Amino acid sequence: MLRPMSDLTVETAVDVVIVGGGLVGMTLAAALGHAGVSCAVIDGEDPATASSDTFDGRVFAIALSVQRMMAAIGLWPLVAETQPIEEIRVSDGASPLFLHYDHRELGDEPLGHMVENRMLRRALYRRLAELPAVTLLAPMRVARVQRDADGVVAELADGHLVRGRLCVAADGRDSPLRRDARIKSIAWRYRQSGIVCTVAHEKPHRGIAHERFLPAGPFAILPMTGNRSSLVWTEPTEHARMLTGLPADQFHAEMRRRFGDFLGATEVVGPRWSYPLAFHHAERYIDRRLALVGDAAHLMHPIAGQGLNAGLRDIAALAEAVVNADRLGLDIGGDDVLRRYQRWRHADNTMMLAVTDVLNRLFSNDIWPIKLARDVGLAAVNRLPPLRLLFMRHAMGTVGHLPRLLRGEAL
Fold it and tell me: Which of 179, 198, 282, 293 is least crowded, fewest Cβ atoms below 10 Å from its Cβ?
């Protein structure tokens, strides 16, 4: 329930304390609250600002398995606007060879959905407000968190205390909780930045996502509602900074050179910005009564559009481990529960992080022998239906030992 800070008592007692109210933290709260596990989400951002009508340009690709989870916890019906991804075309620059995914080869469900950040946030705030087991404390800063054998205590900036049995760090890539737990990460910065903007176009996109590998990095054209597409354009950092600083007409001309005219006349709408691309992976996801999820645990190159999906798969696994323990009367913050979560997610994320890093290094160059080899590889996969379908299922997040929520089943 959304409660003003003035309504809080000196102490609030819950089962799970979630620090960070981004998309991952709030979705975890919705999953736990739907299953009757009490939790408090503590976040520094004002919900009124985070869910405002202002279009900030951020759009996320939600994989099919994650969409099933959102439906299972009562969230998906509240998402106002979504664009199904019907097909994906992967190409290497101007090469005529490509890889084509079509959802109809696997059934009626799309490969995924594109959802605007504001639409997803509004749906999450609405869902949390419907769940009596969830308390959202925002805007509020966490002063410190104490964890011991008996439980966790989060002291808020105004002196209020929130007690629980488990603390979840959903506090982002620079996670203070990860740092306080002295959990090391493997990390580096790419010499690339991602330029993000929205492009309105004359012709319909027909739900087709395009992933083009250019020498500077991937250039993704992702379908949005209406005749709009979200553009994720990778360039060397200095060049990206120069491009985003250009006047609107010059920026559009540079974008159009890479975008092409296959969707007719184009116009850049809304804001445009760039952000540096980086990699990090925590050496472990757990500590005493602490679990890391989402960007607090891992950060990957956006080449495959799997960053948010990986974080949401984290919370599907963690929610199942916690709910199972709670129903058995076990300690939900105990070592056995946390180790189960870590075993479930660390290996899977390690593989995804490695794949995205290798793909970026393989495709972000114009070395002729490498280019020829990757073009032939794309064409070969496209001509081998069993391998192509396996790659499609990976993109949809339906491969492997999945938590119940990712199969669309209730906890």
Answer: 179
Residues in the chain: 411
10 Å CB burial of residue 34 (0-12, 13-18, 19+) is buried
Contacts of 52 (CB under 8 A, 6+ apart): 118
Give the tens place of pLDDT for each residue, 247-256.
Answer: 999 999 999 9
Name all domains of the chain by residue range, CATH numbers in brackets: 5-82+114-186+280-364+400-407 (3.50.50.60)
Q: Is the pLDDT of residue 98 over 90?
A: no
Task: Name the one residue in this structure whose structure tokens are 């933290």.
Answer: 25
- As given in the structure block, the two tokens for residue 318 are 């963690």
On the 0-12 / 13-18 / 19+ scale of CB atoms within 10 A, 96 is exposed
CB 39 within 8 A of CB 18: yes
Q: Which residues contact 1 (CB under 8 A, 6 or more apart)?
A: 128, 129, 131, 132, 134, 135, 136
pLDDT in tens, 292-317: 999 999 999 988 788 999 999 999 99
